[in-house]
UniProtKB/TrEMBL annotation:
The chain holds residues 251 to 617 of 617 of the full protein. Homodimer. The active site is at 362 (for fru-6p isomerization activity). Its main location: cytoplasm. It is found in: Cytoplasm. This is Glutamine--fructose-6-phosphate aminotransferase [isomerizing]. It catalyses: D-fructose 6-phosphate + L-glutamine = D-glucosamine 6-phosphate + L-glutamate. Residues 43-182, 216-357 form the SIS domain. Catalyzes the first step in hexosamine metabolism, converting fructose-6P into glucosamine-6P using glutamine as a nitrogen source. GO terms for biological process: amino sugar biosynthetic process; carbohydrate metabolic process; fructose 6-phosphate metabolic process; protein N-linked glycosylation; UDP-N-acetylglucosamine metabolic process. The lineage of its organism: Bacteria, Pseudomonadati, Bacteroidota, Flavobacteriia, Flavobacteriales.
Length: 367
């Protein structure tokens, strides 16, 4: 059932063009210029009148939530807060019947997320679920929702579920923005036309990054630490890249907003520190270029994820991974591909069990 792949994780990484396509199918209708989502449409007024949306999740789903915050705030202009479900449930959060809560969970069974939903419901909030497993506990307990159509995810390290979550959050943000008048029709059309190309661009990213990430990984089998840096939409992508590496390679890794480096982590940089930098053209590119220069001045080893044809970052980085260009808001979907592959190959070269890393379970049903 691994379809010729050595591990489920690699199979699931390669399934992403299809899982994203399946998540868009029937919802993104570019020719008609609409996004069709019953869960959003049926509750449109309530959602668009929300004073605040709180996103709750754990782990990778929480990282998707952070990107969801950027998307919903940019396109629908509704304030969003993102919380770890485990913190939310124990801190007496300010939630009333006027609130909207979005719960994100691949498995739909995560205990902390479930408990946070129950609390939000007790306080009268409207809870929208984004789950991958059909008919899971969270899918059943939420008031409305949308499924990610990623198909079964077996590898403990979440890959295709994450990019499917980003796909759903993009659809939600664009649909809300279109209907509440925050997004012009022209901008809406430009964005949905671009979103429609994402499965193909993910396919191109798989092709352009697979061999090179495999090669790069060989150099970092004995690394003890890694930093992952990104700005804007790619800051949460950096957090997710670091989590992937930690989970399966057992190498300590941290994600940071690139500009935060000078407030502390820069002290860690020497010739032994690998730093993965996500530096697409659209998204604070000039600022990232200066961050790379700061790192090189301290001899850090830079692995840069850039757009095809990049010269500025590429000329100073130690290793260059090229991905196709897209709008900034969708770039984490594309940038995730080489980060997943890099962590996969580092873990494989270390001889680890990538599908079932030590101490971890696919769904965390205990708190
Ligand atoms: O099933 P969920 O999305 O609720 O799971 C949340 C986390 O346990 C999960 O994302 C975890 O961090 C993964 N192992 C990440 O790869």
């Amino acid at each position: 059932e691994k379809g010729g792949y050595e591990h489920f994780m690699l199979k699931e990484i390669f399934e992403q063009p299809k899982s994203i396509h399946d998540t868009l199918r029937g919802r993104l209708l570019v020719e008609e210029g609409i996004i069709k989502m019953a869960g959003i449409w049926d509750n449109l007024e309530r959602l668009n009148q929300a004073k605040k949306i709180t996103i709750i999740a754990c782990g990778t789903s929480w990282h998707a939530g952070l990107i969801g915050e950027y998307l919903i705030e940019e396109f629908a202009r509704i304030p969003v807060e993102v919380e770890y479900a485990s913190e939310f449930r124990y801190r007496n959060p300010i939630i009333t019947e006027k609130d909207i809560v979005i719960a994100i969970s691949q498995s739909g069974e995560t205990a902390d997320t479930m408990a946070a939903i129950k609390l939000a419901k007790e306080r009268g909030a409207f809870v929208y679920g984004i789950c991958n497993v059909v008919d899971s506990s969270i899918a059943r307990v939420t008031d409305a929702g949308s499924y990610t159509h990623a198909g079964p995810e077996i590898g403990v390290a979440s890959t295709k579920a994450f990019t499917a979550q980003l796909t759903i959050l993009s659809l939600i943000a664009l649909k809300l923005g279109k209907h509440n008048g925050q997004l012009s029709n022209q901008e809406f059309m430009r964005l949905i036309t671009e979103l429609d190309t994402i499965p193909q661009k993910v396919q191109e990213a798989l092709e352009s990054t697979h061999e090179i990430t495999k090669e790069i990984a060989k150099n970092f089998v004995d690394a003890q630490n890694f930093l992952y840096l990104g700005r804007g939409y790619n800051f949460p992508a950096a957090l997710e890249g670091a989590l992937k590496l930690k989970e399966i390679s057992y190498i300590h890794a941290e994600g940071y907003p690139a500009a935060e480096m000078k407030h502390g982590p820069i002290a860690l940089i020497d010739e032994n520190m690998p730093i993965v930098i996500i530096a697409p053209k659209q998204g604070h590119y000039d600022k990232i270029v200066s961050n790379v220069q700061e790192i090189k001045a301290r001899k850090g080893k830079v692995i840069a994820v850039v757009n095809k044809g990049d010269t500025q970052v590429a000329s100073v980085a130690d290793y260059v991974i090229e991905i196709p260009e897209t709008s900034e808001c969708f770039s984490p979907i594309i940038a995730s591909v080489p980060l997943q592959l890099l962590s996969y190959y580092v873990a494989v070269y270390r001889g680890n069990n990538v599908d079932q890393p030590r101490n971890l379970a696919k769904s965390v049903t205990v708190e």
